[in-house]
Amino acid sequence: QVRLVESGGGLVQAGGSLRLSCVASGLTFRSYAMAWFRQTPGKEREFVSRISGSGGISGYSDSVKGRFTISRDNAKNTVYLQMNSLKPDDTAVYYCNRNAKIQFTWGRGTQVTVSS
Fold it and tell me: What is the pLDDT of residues 30-55, one digit of tens each?
């Protein structure tokens, strides 16, 4: 069974930075493109960033492009999201999952709160 555990969230002032981590277990990690998503209360979960299995190809939503950087360490079964120049609109629970229509069971996510 695949398990995803996100961490690294917290409270930060606007303009600050955070680095999120997601450790995956129960899968051949390098075989899966992974992605970060986020969700705020009352809204649907939205895509933030994706990365290929090798880590060589990445993509971002327009709202985070130029501020966030996704990376992965396949030896550690971990995908990261470096978030810089944070804005209050980035406040959300952040989740990782595979970048595909059929996804793994979602983890608990990690809360990111950006104060103005």
Answer: 999 999 999 999 999 999 999 999 99
